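User: My collaborator sent over this chain with a note saying "see what the structure looks like." That's all I know about it. Can you take a look?
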Amino acid sequence: MPLYRALCADPGARPAAAVGLGECGTREDAGLVRALLTHPVAGVRACAVAGLRALESAHVDDVRPLLDDSSAAVVRQATVALVPCADRVPRDLLLGLLAKDRPRHQRIAAVRLLRAIGVHTEV
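Assistant: Without extra context I'll predict from the sequence alone. Here is the result:
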């Protein structure tokens, strides 16, 4: 774990360090991983979400903003993290993500989350 913690301090070269820390770390490591949700490298953000899921520390308020991410990989990870608690994501936000001018990956995320709460719609 000390290695993963050190790699998370500068994850640009090894974006998957957050996943590694999530898999073998403890919930006390969640703060370090959570800080990577705003990293400028999309791969680091995606791995941070996966790491938080592994730590069982992916909180709705932390992950929800990533539904608006420009990276499909980040949005996919955020969607997976939010499906179990989709009822806590504002419906208006999800409906806004369905707009035709939104990137396809954001529209797909909205459909998946809406379906998780029993609202069926198409992309």
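A starting point for your reply to your collaborator: Residues 4 and 20 are 6 Å apart (CA to CA).
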